[in-house]
Structure prediction request, 300 residues.
Amino acid sequence: MKEAIRRLLKKRRAILLAHNYQPPEIQEVADLCGDSLELSIKASETDAAVIVFCGVHFMAETASILSPEKTVLLPSLNAGCPMADMITPQALLAKLAELGPMPVVTYVNSPASVKALSTVCCTSANVLAVVNCLDESEILMTPDRNLASYAASQTTKTIHAWQGYCPIHDRLTPEEVTAARTAHPEALFMAHPECRKVILDLADAVLSTSGMIRLARTSQHRAFIVGTESGLIHALQKACPDKAFFPVSASMICPDMKKIHLEDVIRSLETLEGQVKVPESVRVPALESVRRMIGITAGS
Ligand code: 13P
Ligand code: SF4
Prediction:
């Protein structure tokens, strides 16, 4: 199946991008695996005619925002993100009416229609650079309350947090972290900023998924407890075959990130089914906030 996919990718002049949480067999066939920021940048730079996005819906939408002339395929259209579904443009406008005018920093894990109303986007890799780049001292951050609380802990700005969250990261408990630390006392604990503050307070490092891979590569440590979705363990193990990686909890599995199978990629490439296209009325304002984010990251 991997050979069939590689053949079809060539025939369609397509590139296959996979998020670090995708199943191992998808990561293995991809042209590029990465965190949300790396995948957004790649989607903005590629000259391929077709982008096959193995991730969830908001990621394919971001690719469509950046590359409207390309065909963007999400091989399983029902791969969504529960956190992205916790905000709507109408609810955001109501919140701004209540708070008064202020810049809105929106995590890429959000619908295109919300990005379109936002000042700038961010990912877990660049949230601090984005927040610090704004002149204003009061900001509304959407939709992840945990990422907002992490940003607030690292800046003097006042941050109003939208009350969304990632169900997979939010449910991790301090007891699970303590149990993992007791089982692997030699290991460094890396946590994703989608985890709650009580978890981040226990972490040795707070990083995006690719940030975790970079730390594992460069650190003197030989063992790591991984405080994010367990799909990352495959990428970590591949990057550092002689180091040990332990999931912080067996329950950190995102069902939406496991919805794309090799068969779906083949079908999508054969039929061009699963197209994601953001309408121009939403895409143009959303592009502003995504581009601003990429510009800040490039300059930081
Ligand atoms: P990053 O890979 O950007 O850290 O994102 C995590 C995530 O939850 C994506 O859905
Ligand atoms: Fe959404 Fe969480 Fe799954 Fe990422 S891990 S796609 S934030 S539900």
Residues 20, 35-37, 81, 109, 123-125, 166, 192, 194, 208-209 surround 1,3-dihydroxyacetonephosphate (ligand 1) (CB under 6 Å). The chain has 15 helices and twelve strands. The mean pLDDT is 96. The longest helix spans residues 280-299.
